[in-house]
Design goal:
With 384 residues, the chain is α+β, with helices and mostly antiparallel strands. The chain has 14 helices and eleven strands.
């Protein structure tokens, strides 16, 4: 595992030096150090400084020396660069392998509870878990799931403050354009892959915007209060759900499902799927390409990848433990966590172990950190 950690760290080191020419090598070393330390159970600069007897002020100074722009670019380029190789590998395989891996883009946001008074970008956000508003930060993410591998393509903090604040759907479109620009520059078209959304993002404007960008398959989880006309009956989806009969053992489907054509004053024409999932009735709206029922359900099953991404950021990487002041510090904390996730993902794929198993083994081997970090300086250019 030691060899794989060094290999992963050098991969990101080469990537950072090749794409961020104006960043000093000392700052890159600090970011890599904090990212590697997450594998060993050290989740913030204070814990790293205590464990390795380093000056805390230097770590915090290096983190705050990068602008918000650089941290936002880092969140895009690192994840997209890692996904690029996996997408190329998938597209080089047979059609059956591509179908099994089912590359799917997913969009969702998540809340992080915060209690400090000097932490930036904190507001009251609605929490599904608590069924109430909670004070903290909101993070919007775009991921791609290829097989069982979930890679974040773009992750950004959402702010309610400031004159130029941007709403989440508008911010998502800007983030997606950044992702598309990256892959277009490498001659990879990800518009052909389906994209999934939670019900919060359902709107005709967003569907039309994605269609204009070139996406051909858009899947949105339906709310019960959506009003739609099905079989000349215009009522809420909750009523249609009760009157519709789910058909078991449909071709290629592993759950009872009912497929209908619907018209909505909000969305226009679309395909609606009613299906049972873990004993609960679900509704799925399909826009664009008229997918087969089994295809739509297979794509929607990939949406849990972004939920897994949030869970690992919060549970395995302790997202809330990184508490840095100012908006610049908030972006730095999120950037370090994203880099840590990608590094841990590389080690997990190579070692065929879960995040928890890797961290459990490495927590008792922190003496390896100094030896591992010594390899970084072999590739670093000297400071001017």
């Amino acid at each position: 595992m030691r060899h794989q950690i060094i290999k992963s760290a050098k991969f990101f080191q080469h990537l950072l030096f090749s794409r961020f020419h104006r960043i000093r090598s000392q700052i890159i070393d600090t970011g890599l150090l904090l990212s590697v330390c997450h594998l060993f159970g050290l989740y913030n600069p204070n814990q790293v400084a205590d464990a390795l007897t380093l000056p805390k002020a230097g770590l915090y100074r290096d983190l705050h020396s990068l602008s918000q722009y650089h941290w936002k670019c880092l969140n895009v380029r690192l994840g997209c660069a890692m996904a690029l190789e996996l997408i190329k590998d998938t597209e080089s395989k047979s059609a059956s392998t591509q179908s099994r891996r089912c590359p799917t883009l997913s969009v969702d946001d998540s809340n992080v509870d915060r209690y400090g008074k000097t932490i930036s970008d904190c507001s009251n956000w609605w929490s599904k878990k608590r069924n109430n508003t909670t004070w903290g930060q909101n993070i919007l993410g775009i991921t791609i799931k290829i097989g069982d591998i979930v890679i974040p393509l773009n992750t950004r903090l959402v702010s309610k403050k400031g004159r130029g604040r941007t709403k989440k759907p508008v911010l998502f479109v800007a983030m997606m354009k950044e992702v598309l620009d990256f892959f277009d520059a490498h001659s990879i078209d990800i518009r052909k892959y389906p994209i999934t959304f939670d019900s919060w993002y359902g709107s005709k404007k967003l569907v039309n915007t994605l269609s204009d960008l070139g996406f051909v398959s858009i899947l949105v989880h339906g709310k019960n209060n959506y009003v739609m006309t099905i079989n000349n009956k215009k009522v809420k989806l909750s009523v249609h759900k009760k009157s519709g009969q789910l058909q078991p053992e449909q071709w290629g489907c592993d759950k009872p499902v009912c497929r209908v054509q619907a018209t909505s004053p909000t969305f226009g024409e679309c395909i609606v799927l009613f299906f049972s999932d873990m004993g609960k009735g679900r509704t799925l709206l399909v826009f664009g390409k008229p997918l087969r029922t089994c295809e739509a359900l297979r794509i929607w099953s990939q949406h849990n990848g972004i939920e897994l991404y949030w869970r690992q950021l919060k549970s395995n990487l302790h997202l809330s433990d990184m508490c840095l002041e100012s908006a610049q510090g908030a972006c730095a904390g999120l950037g370090i966590k994203v880099m840590s996730y990608l590094m841990l993902l590389q080690v997990s794929i190579s070692e065929r172990r879960t995040f928890h198993q890797i961290q459990l083994e490495l927590t008792g081997q922190r003496h390896m950190l100094l030896e591992i970090m010594a390899h970084f300086h072999e590739l670093n250019p000297k400071e001017p």
